[in-house]
Design brief:
binds beta-D-glucopyranose; Immunoglobulin-like; 3 domains; 32% helix; six-stranded mixed sheet; Rossmann fold; TIM Barrel; eight-stranded parallel sheet; 764 residues; alpha/beta; 20 helices
């Protein structure tokens, strides 16, 4: 009782101190707004690219070293009162001391030369570590982290990234990506947590906690404001290409795309960035229904709504829903946009918006509403008191401690897809040929958003870390491990072109080796440069694989990919296949520890690995995808043709499942279902297994998905050990969004399954 009273007291204290902080913020911001001119308000709603105010030939490109240009900065930050700056110069990472110097200068100009002394809010894309800071800790990309099936890795990444972003004097991060990564063709699948809505939700929430802290107190100098993106439905395009049209019915949007944002909003996410594409013919930046009715009113989002890159302009230039630039501004701001990532021609946005308010086309209430949210964010980040954090206060920046967390995430994510005759792990000191374009560089291990937007500078910045070849040479001895690329990426500005280096040399070296480690995959890319016309692996890589296979030596195929590129043609020739995705700076080391058996692989696919280019469907397809004629009269292609299923991944141990039990067989809507199962490590070494609970609604008023992931738990099991795992699943979580866009659980039978065990229950 005493303990209870004590906790109640603390809870009341926290509530009342939050309340008084809330009142203080409200008073401070209202007071400020009451003194602001229209121009000052519109300036707060404007975000520019750093190149616009840096020294250099023009506003699109800057000179090195990075330095703020006084007259350009005064024009933007003082004459036009711009309230936010983003990005780096020329897409290049900078040292923390350079960030400190430049952001200090920006704040000095903005705060000393404007009558109200409002600080600038600086934002950056730091999506798997602090992208644009030299020396920052680079974690695996989100898709890789999802493959660990351990949300703690997302938390670790975000809290280290928050710390190192603040060490770079930046308080606002355009991350996490909460998009559903359901299309392997889409150039940004690697930025997501994969194809399953539950994985995206669980990992997304951990990212918010890591960035903003458990208490969402972002005045904490180790925390940043998160930015959920890209609201909403960004990846569900028809063409599979970036920023192209999507057609999504409301109930599909609710059930598969919006939930991850809903959960992140509940977790306290401070800001959101809008989908740069269009849904049902409406550019999302012009969609009042999505931004106001859904995001603000239904989901209760209180924070700042930011555009994506140049997206107001695109309502006129690209999407043709506004006849002029000015009309584009009117549509977007009235649809609910608070801040415009202009990011270059800020004068026009500024003048247009001022005029629109003067002409009564945009109300002052709408402006005040936007500015209030922006100023509240600045207040919460403590920018009025402490506008710049100093790298000298961040002793853990790029530390061993941070590196170890990045290594851990990589080692738990790497996914063993095939292991004939237990060829892995490899003991002793065999002769190994490492071949392929991804075998000896840091660039492809990291992917895009690493030291630069497209990731092309990584080898310059991350040269101290180990490539796959270097890590294997460290492990098995420099004399035993050789590297011959065979084919490589062509560095001519094209992201896909390949050249043949010397396939014959690779083949002759292979015949002198005991094993071939063939590292294939993709070069780095994101956004439009990553659009794809052919999901197959490049033909030169296929050629290299086939030639090496002719030597008869065992090949271990390493897939270093941002999305599942098709390998069906060469799969039969491979003794083992390991998907490392984009594992970051410690991917080489983690892989070599899996090779030697120091680490027992435990990653599982966060997406379906397709076998053919015309069979690209996630695991939660509708039953009509499988329609083989039962009389055998026709042989339909209509089978689900995956190379590897969602949730699949091997281990050096074997796990056996038994005794699936459910506490009842009849349930009411407000009940919770208890499902337990025994999992045994029947192998000879310790390992980790992810236990996955699926449900199938057997009949429903809308055709149900064949199955849906409802819960998961990654557990450690010693060799020979057995554990009983119990899930508690509220019946309400079996719901789907019906044709009235309502989440419902319809009465009837459901099948619950774990591994290959299943049981039916009835919901009354
Ligand atoms: C991307 C966003 C990113 C923004 C700022 C856009 O092109 O779509 O994800 O946050 O640029 O760099």
């Amino acid at each position: 009782m005493k303990k209870y009273i004590h906790s109640l007291f603390i809870l009341l204290l926290v509530i009342s101190s939050n309340e008084s902080l809330g009142n203080e913020k409200e008073k401070f911001v209202n007071d400020l707004i009451s003194q602001m001119t229209l121009e000052e308000k519109v300036g707060q709603m404007t975000q520019i690219n750093l190149t616009v105010i840096a020294k250099g030939p023009n506003r699109f490109s800057s000179s090195f070293p990075m330095e703020i240009d006084d007259s350009r900065a005064n024009k933007a930050l003082v004459d036009f009162k711009v309230g936010s700056v983003l990005n780096t110069i020329n897409n290049t990472a900078q040292k923390p001391s350079v960030w400190f110097k430049n952001i200090s200068k920006i704040q000095k100009i903005a705060m000393n030369n404007n009558r109200l002394g409002i600080p600038v809010i600086y934002g950056i894309d730091a999506i798997h570590g602090t992208t644009y800071t030299d020396g920052a800790t680079m974690f695996p990309q989100q898709i890789t982290t999802a493959a660990s099936w351990n949300p703690e890795n997302a938390y670790n990444m975000a809290q280290v990234c928050a710390y190192e972003t603040r060490a770079s004097s930046i308080p606002w991060n355009f991350s996490p990506v909460l998009d559903l990564g359901l299309d392997p063709r889409f150039p940004r699948q690697f930025e997501t947590f994969g194809e399953d809505p539950l994985l995206v939700e669980r990992f997304g929430v951990e990212m918010i906690k890591g960035y903003q802290g458990f208490d969402n107190n972002v005045s904490n100098k180790h925390k940043v404001a998160a930015c959920m993106k890209h609201f909403v439905g960004y990846h569900a395009t028809i063409s599979g290409k970036d920023r192209t049209p999507a057609y999504i019915p409301d109930n599909v949007l609710s059930e598969y795309h919006i939930e991850s944002f809903k959960k992140a909003i509940e977790a306290g996410a401070k800001t959101v960035m809008i989908n740069s594409g269009l849904i049902n013919g409406i550019p999302v930046h012009a969609d009042y229904n999505l931004l106001i009715n859904i995001l603000r009113n239904k989901l209760g989002f209180q924070g700042v709504i930011l555009t994506d890159w140049e997206d107001i302009r695109k309502l006129h230039n690209r999407d043709k829903v506004a006849k002029t630039q000015k009309e584009a501004v009117k549509i977007a701001i009235n649809a609910g946009i608070d801040m415009s990532m202009v990011p270059y021609e800020y004068e026009q946005f500024f003048n247009d918006l001022v005029e629109l308010v003067e002409d009564g086309e945009v109300s002052m209430d709408r402006i005040d509403d936007a500015v209030k949210r922006i100023l509240e964010l600045k207040f919460e980040l403590d920018l009025f008191q402490n506008p710049v954090t100093n790298y000298e206060d961040y002793l853990d920046f790029g530390s061993k401690k941070h590196h170890q967390l990045a290594y851990k995430a990589a080692s738990e994510s790497i996914t063993l897809l095939k292991n004939n005759n237990n060829i892995l792990p490899i003991k002793g000191k065999p002769r190994i040929l490492v071949a392929g374009p991804n075998g000896n560089n840091m660039r492809t291990l990291n992917g895009a958003w690493s030291y630069s937007w497209q990731g092309e500078l990584t080898d310059k910045f991350a040269g101290d870390f180990n490539t796959i070849f270097e890590a294997l040479a460290n492990k098995y001895g420099k004399d035993n491990v050789k590297y011959v690329s065979g084919v490589s990426y062509k560095e001519n500005g094209s992201y896909y072109d390949m050249v043949e280096d010397d396939i014959n040399k690779a083949v002759s070296e292979a015949s002198k080796s005991d094993y071939i480690v063939l590292c294939l995959g993709e070069n780095t890319y994101t956004e439009k440069p990553g659009d794809l016309n052919d999901l197959n692996l490049h033909q030169l890589q296929i050629k290299l694989a086939k030639k090496l296979a002719e030597t008869g030596k065992p090949i271990i195929l390493i897939l270093n990919i941002g999305r599942p590129r098709l390998i069906t043609d060469i799969e039969p020739f491979m003794s083992a296949i390991v998907n490392i995705y984009l594992p970051g700076n410690f991917g080489g080391d983690a892989l070599s520890d899996i090779f030697s058996g120091k680490v027992n692989p435990s990653g599982k696919l966060p997406y379906t690995y397709p076998a053919y280019p015309n069979s690209l469907i996630p695991y939660y397809f509708k039953p009509s995808e499988v329609q083989n004629n039962s009389q055998g009269a026709y042989n339909y292609v209509g089978e689900v043709n995956n190379l590897y299923d969602f949730g699949f991944g091997l281990s050096y141990s074997e796990f056996t499942y038994s005794n699936l039990e459910i506490n009842n067989d009849q349930f009411n809507l407000d009940d919770s279902i208890k499902i337990s199962v025994n999992v045994k490590n029947s192998g000879k070494i310790d390992g980790s297994e992810t236990v996955q609970l699926y449900s199938s609604d057997l009949y429903a008023s809308l055709t149900p998905d064949v199955k849906r992931l409802r819960d998961f738990d990654k557990i450690e099991l010693k060799a020979g050990e057995m554990k009983t795992i119990t899930f508690e699943l509220p019946v309400s979580e079996l719901a789907f969004a019906n044709s009235d866009n309502q989440f419902v659980v319809e009465s009837g039978k459901f099948k619950l399954s774990i591994d290959n065990l299943s049981k039916e229950i009835t919901v009354r």
